[in-house]
Design a protein that fits this description.
Length: 541
């Protein structure tokens, strides 16, 4: 049975998207609207109509990379670097980037998701090689310290927090702390320093990037939650616990109690201790989307990059993919020797034959996130510390916590005061203890209109900036239903990730989620390992 464009759009709910109008299309420029990744496109995988569509064309490729995000382009970079050109990249969205996608408002580009990369430690030689290729790492000083392109180094001030009506520098709420709280803060860092000094038998750090390369010595901590680790060490200061909870929410979309202690400590230790590290934080007005755009320019795929292409079925034994080109409404069959699944792992079971995925459907869980970009006629101010790149409210009620906002236009402040308004990106992980709670958040995200979600965002921002609505000229809402893999206790070393990474016939998964932590570094390493595997498989290693 043929599938007309109209039918496909109707069955998938893509009509509004294809017609170029927003779900919440209002004449005012400030009318909130959805932009970015379309949940409806992802849900096409559930549509039987796709499977019924006749095949219009057959093609062959040595390697097919499914997904045009950080992992997909890292795999492409590696294949090309090692001399293979016979590969294609398929991306279901019209734009590349995935969770690192950038958007543009008239005032500035901005992130829709991932927005920074800490400069990697020296052990991450492949990642340093990538950054050199992208002309971000421009050289090394005499003592071996990497030198980064200045425009990518986060401008000062990096962080401030909002507490009791005032902005304070940094992220730890030290103002008004008791001597006992101060002593706990010091003891926490002493504890981290002690862990940082310990070396494995190979002389390496215990906590490493990618996380699966970490030493076996402390892996037992993965069974414990970060909250339990803090309890065990007598850390009960709300200030310290808020600070560590913030780190877990920011990096993993999880609370202290939902984060594995190994993952929580990994955040502080895998790149060398945060309070002594001199390596900078790399960021761009458009967030990590600009990093992906550089990768795209570097690998220069031309017609081998196919956006608007959804992979909806894979035969892992025969190396056959069925793909729908959503722009031309054609269905294509592709024969490949190796398939790199650089898309979220939980989707793979939907394209494989029934019962072919050895990983159980609930083995990995993902945190939903609400993100919004606001274009403001005036940069946000406030009493106390000046506007920083990252601006975080201290909210004592854990149920009401959000991560505040990052300023896309902040990098302009390197050379001059930010003028002519600003674009800020609001971040809120939607945390829950169990899959039912996460599903409820997802239903809320997908069931609300842009105006409803924008009210949630504005309400949170008004707590920090009471008059913010007056300065608003545009508000774009991004819904991430399965934004981040959750490193809950037992997740990192409990066996599920090994199964998630294991090849299934000629398919190997390699997005950040099979690395275990939602980080660019994990996507990169999962992807280059998978690219090496693909080369081996096709006899080009
Ligand atoms: C709100 C948010 C903030 C974040 N902040 C940071 C940060 O600051 N720093 C950081 O390092 N990490 C951050 N992350 C984590 C980020 O997800 C990873 O760093 C990384 O970008 C993940 O890339 P990926 O390629 O593995 O997966 P994805 O980004 O999920 O890319 C997968 C791609 O596959 C495509 N796809 C899916 N199904 C199909 C199909 N059937 N056919 C074809 N294509 C398909 C998708 O459209 C997508 O483009 C953040 C994530 C979110 C959601």
């Amino acid at each position: 049975m043929g599938l007309s464009r109209r039918e496909l759009l109707r069955t998938s709910g893509l009509g509004a998207l294809a017609l170029g109008c927003n779900r919440d299309d209002k004449p005012s420029s400030a009318a909130p609207r959805f932009t970015g990744q379309s949940p409806e496109r992802g849900h096409l995988l559930r549509s039987a109509a796709l499977l019924d569509a006749p095949i219009d064309a057959h093609i062959r490729a040595g390697v097919v990379i499914v997904g045009g995000g950080a992992a997909g382009f890292s795999a492409a970079w590696r294949l090309q670097k090692l001399g293979l050109d016979d590969f294609i990249v398929l991306e279901l969205e019209p734009e590349i980037g995935g969770t690192a996608r950038s958007g543009v408002l008239p005032r500035s580009p901005h992130p829709m998701g991932a927005h920074y990369l800490p400069a990697p430690p020296r052990e991450c030689s492949e990642l340093l090689e990538l950054l050199t290729d992208l002309d971000l790492l421009v050289g090394y000083e005499h003592d071996g310290t990497p030198e980064y392109r200045s425009t990518a180094i986060c401008a000062a001030p990096e962080e401030r927090h909002f507490h009791a009506g005032t902005w304070h520098p940094g992220l730890y709420p030290s103002d008004g702390q008791t001597p006992a709280q101060e002593q706990q803060w010091e003891r926490f860092w002493d504890q981290l320093r002690e862990l940082d000094r310990v070396r494995d038998h190979d002389g390496e750090l215990l906590f490493r990037l990618p996380v699966r390369r970490s030493s076996a010595r402390l892996r037992g901590l993965d069974q414990l939650s970060m909250a339990a680790w803090l309890d065990e060490h007598g850390f009960d200061s709300w200030r310290l616990r808020w600070y560590v909870d913030y780190a877990c929410r920011d990096d993993y979309g999880c609370t202290l109690a939902q984060t594995s202690a190994f993952a929580g400590l990994h955040h502080f230790l895998a790149r060398g201790l945060e309070d002594t590290r001199e390596d900078p934080l790399l960021t761009w007005p458009g967030g990590n989307g600009e990093l992906i755009a550089s990768l795209r320019a570097r690998v220069d795929l031309g017609a081998r990059l196919k956006t608007d292409h959804i992979v909806y079925a894979i035969d892992p034994e025969r190396g056959q993919l069925r793909v729908r080109d959503l722009a031309s409404e054609r269905s294509i069959s592709i024969e490949a020797q190796a398939i790199l699944w650089a898309a979220p792992r939980f989707l793979l079971r939907h394209v494989l034959p029934r019962d072919r995925d050895p990983l159980s459907a609930d083995a990995l869980t993902y945190a939903p996130w609400l993100v919004a970009n606001l274009e403001l006629r005036e940069p946000p101010g406030g009493v106390g510390a000046t506007l920083a790149w990252d601006n975080v409210p201290i909210i004592e009620n854990p149920a009401a916590r959000n991560l505040g906002y990052v300023v896309a236009t902040h990098q302009e402040g390197r050379d001059r005061a930010i003028e002519g308004g600003a674009v800020i990106t609001y971040y809120q992980p939607l945390v829950a203890d169990d899959p039912a709670g996460l599903a409820q958040h997802r239903a809320h995200l997908l069931g609300s209109d842009a105006r409803g979600l924008s009210e949630q965002v504005l309400g949170a921002l008004e707590h920090m900036h009471p008059g913010i609505r007056r300065h608003l000229s545009a508000l774009h809402v991004h819904r991430w239903g399965h934004a981040m893999i959750r490193p809950v206790p037992g997740h990192l070393f409990g066996g599920a990730l090994e199964l998630a990474r294991a090849p299934i016939g000629c398919v190997r998964a390699c997005a950040t989620d099979v690395g275990g932590l939602p980080l660019f570094e994990e996507a990169f390493y999962a992807a280059i390992d998978a690219a090496d595997w693909a080369l081996d498989r096709i006899g080009r290693a």
